[in-house]
Amino acid sequence: MTTEARLDRIRGAVPPRNHNARTIAALTSNPGCARRAIMDAAGVDKQRLAACAGFPAPFGQSQFAITRGNAFEAQVKANGCAELLRLLREGLGLPIPEVSYDDLEEVAGNTSRELRHARTRSLLARAAASGADAGTLFDHPLLRLAVAGQQVYLEPDLIAFQLHGQFHVVEMKSFAVIDGQADGDKVAAAATQSAVYVLALRELLAGEGYGPDSVSHEAVLVCPENFSNAPVATLVDVRKQLTVLRRQLSRLERIDSLAELLPPGLTFDLMIDEAGVAFRPAAELTEAIRTVPARYVPECLASCEMCYFCRDEARGTTAALGRDVRDDLGAVETVSAVLGLADGTLTPADEQAEAAAMLQAAARLRRETPGGAA
Amino acid sequence: MEAIERRIEKLRAEVRRATASGDRVRARAMRAELREAEHVWDEALAALEEKSATASSAPVSRSGPLLPIREQVHQALTVLGTPAAQRLIIAVHDAFFGSPLAAARLTSLRRDEERSFRAAPYSRPYYLCAALTADLLAPARGLLAVSTWPMERRVIGPLSPRVNYLEAAIRVAESLLRAPEPGPAAQRLLRRFAVNIPGAGDGAKPRDPQRVAAAARAELEVHSGEDRAVRSEAAARARIQLHDAEQLFGSRIRVIPRTGTGA
Amino acid sequence: MSTLTALARAQAVARRIAQPVATVRHVHVSDRPLVLIPLALAGEANAPLAAMVGDEPGSPRLVVVHQPRNRDQRFAFAAALAGIVVGYVEAFRSAVETIPSGQGREPRVRCADAPQVLVPNPAGIGFVRLLGRSTRFRRSYGEYAVDPAVPVLGRWLTFLAERAEYPGSCLLLAATDALALHWASGQSPVEDLNLAALLGWIDPPAGMTGPEAAAAAEDPVLWPPAGPVTDPTFDNEVLAPLIEACARAGDGTGARRRAESALEAAVSAQLTPTWGLMWRGVGLLRALPPGGRVAARWDGDKDAFTRHAEHLRAGGPPQPRRDSAVAAARRLDWMERALASYAVQRALDDPLVLAEYRMTGEAFVGIVTAAEPGPDRRLGQAAQAAPADHRHHGGPSAGRGRRPAAVPGPARAERAGRLRVAIGPAGAGRTGRAAAGRPGRRGGPGAVRRDGPGAHADPGQRSGGGRPGLLHDAVRLLPAVRDVPAARGDAVDARRPAARVRARRRGR
Fold first, then answer.
1. Would you list the domain boundaries of chain B?
2. pTM higher than the cut 0.90
3. Rounded to the nearest 5 degrees, what angle is found at the Cα of A291, between the Cα atoms of A290 and A292?
4. Do C189 and A355 lie within an 8 Å CB cutoff?
5. Are residues A75 and A174 in the same domain?
6. For A156-165, what is each residue's pLDDT tens digit?
7. Are C7 and A58 an interchain contact pair (Cβ–Cβ within 8 Å)?
8. Alpha-carbon distance B254 to C409, whole Å?
9. CA–centroid distance for B153 within its chain
């Protein structure tokens, strides 16, 4: 059975979930989790799956956040990107004559992805070929990236082509930069998403014969400043994120080796009927999911829809207690082992000897301290 | 009223649970019930409002619109003189004609105008129409124009969004100079233009319309030649290849690409 | 985190209830704290939606913004909040106490007590900081005038948020932080950020185990999040339609009033459960006996409060947006010392905390076998090796196989210029530069690390120049030891003699 067929079978009789930059960026977190890798490669709807298995995920997006994001983007792009032009001119030295704007969202009312992508490719190639007068701002371009054997269509907020002949990815985010500082996690997430677009853009231009230097490794991040709506632009170096991404994507390419280890009949098909109701029994589904090992860490709670399922499975392990505990007790994997080593009822394996000694000392100290539980 | 509110509260909890558990079918069903209950509540609210409206004085803050929406948009576009997006139209109308336009009413305007034109072509003195993209002669997203404008003014090349913005700035500045007492909305509008045009001012308040107009003209010189060339070529092509409705509302069905030029 | 805390978490999992990791309370809990639970609108930098606030469990006050995107309403919210918060804070200015002169200082006056604001979680502190930033520069005149109470609120909030970064300060506390300092749950620290879940582990309701209570706490419909972030399904299904209804209704109409009270009811329902949790947390903390040094740290908070109140009264400027380079460097240094000193104080107050340092070899237990009088009070080179006592020592390597010979006899010190401490077999009492970063388990139990207990902090944080940490501070606290408790061991567990010294100082 080919890998692709195997993955199709795992996914079941539904079309694969569309990837976008956010989900691709999320692939870089927890690269060691086989369960996640298989599900992402197969395009499984993890949210639905988790719910069917009895562990609905706590994710959702507030419409206020969505609206605000859209409103901010619309404002920055209004009137031929008037505000963005100002930022690019002031901050990056974009010359005055470079104001050309191309909207790639539709092609004569037709939003077919192949058509949009083709037009994007031709306009960007022309811009790369002719230099300064062939386009500055490309709005809603449609790029493509190969992810685990699928061609994924990606839509960055904007691409600016400007001086030194380099394309820059522009991302608009609605979290604020206050007194020159923004939330580190959010900036990191934006950087990773931008890196996805940089990769995709480089791939597109490589197809037209241009080297990776045609796309800058610096993305332009546009955010509201302080507590107003006025935008401010920052250059973000995404080289590190590019490295991580490339590594993870290539790992996904090698999903064959992972998939081969799985039982051939494995499927996560939810047996959804015409009314949209899922009929797969939860116990059976759970068993199927568990044939693919996971690597649960508490950080999964913020990034993966299977988190509650995997957390339940990981109950009683030290990994579930967090990175600090895991680091501290490296070779000891379960809570019961921890307690057994601590009270001496369990003989430590060689690599656990140091931890065992520490645990015994710790247990003694806790016992002997007045007021501490034994 | 309390009974409705209690039921709404219960239904909301149900919907939230269903959404959280990924049960879309149930969520849809519950949400439908919820919408119905909310609708009932809204109507009860409205009834309350009417009751108190007759009792208290009319709370309307500004005089109601005397003109239909299309007339108001036409007024704003006439000031601007170039195709413009909804936001700018609303801002201009607010600045110079005193009453706020509800954004929601503009979204279907172009479609309604097209329908009206196709039903009875040229029966009205003007129509609010689309601006066409120069390369494909397709309707440019989000822009409104006036049908009585020459074709050249109703096509959009790559440099046109910026050119139109600068021209709009000039027209707004000139209107401000002419207006007896420009209100704060007009000042704000001018300021938003000034911020994005180099040389239009150094943050002094209030902005000087002369200076803004001069700065806009200076930058316009850089782009206008090339922009005009693109536009006239596109306009010529449109006149030849498109029939009347398409010239106003754009070509969707067939893609009419440029021939020969470009990659 | 040390093995001790890891073990405590494992024990919590097995016993299905949180385990104490402290025997005393290390935070001050005011008699009259102000509980503040903010909610913010998603997607914006700091668009307040509502706040529930009050200093009495039975009377929460609710402030709501009906149009969270409307700037005027935001500042009206700030003004209303100011009425409550600033009123609470400034009431503490009236009562003063006199600090007696001592050590060549003039007697001075400071506020007898200071305000204490409690928020549910660290994100709540972030909200306070942002709200302070967005309000303290506003003016009450001119084009965008706001109520004059608003910038005052901003300055107080900014003061509290800055103080919250200072280790050991208790003017602004996050309940999850304060609780996690004293109990180890059977879940991860990430999950401990959920106040309802953490309290479920610490104090499960009758008939439920810790994990069961924590699991129940994760259902946002039953236990709404403590904020400031709201649950997205609440936003989409409840909040959005209600805000819309308020917007649609005309000004001053009955419909508007109705819609507004519906919105307030929905928001109140989101906040009330957390309100109960906050006061439960306060109760749990109050039940612990206070650590010996808590009062002194609170005195420091009172000093800071008094200073800021003076600054405001004298018409001083609002806190600047950014620190200058000098101020930043100074603040960093100050923080590092404070972190080290706070860690040391907790260890000295609490044997369970001290135990953690014994595990890593940063503290040790031994008998003082000799003391050399002398004016040099710093312990520079710590004691030399000597056969140790018969007691077990802290630190694992001491226990391994080599039982030291017993040495009888008490040690007497006239004036503790130097203490010679018998700790363990070879390699006792060396000072030396520890490797940068995490303290290893090597180096023996007696090595006094120059990183000190401050190494417990983020390894990225540089240690301030050479503070010998626990031992040094222990000695500093024993300026004049008359006699050292006889061979019962634990002599250099300086907590006891230190307590005696303090007692002497207090004149009791």
1. 2-54, 69-249
2. no
3. 85
4. no
5. yes
6. 888 777 666 7
7. no
8. 105
9. 17
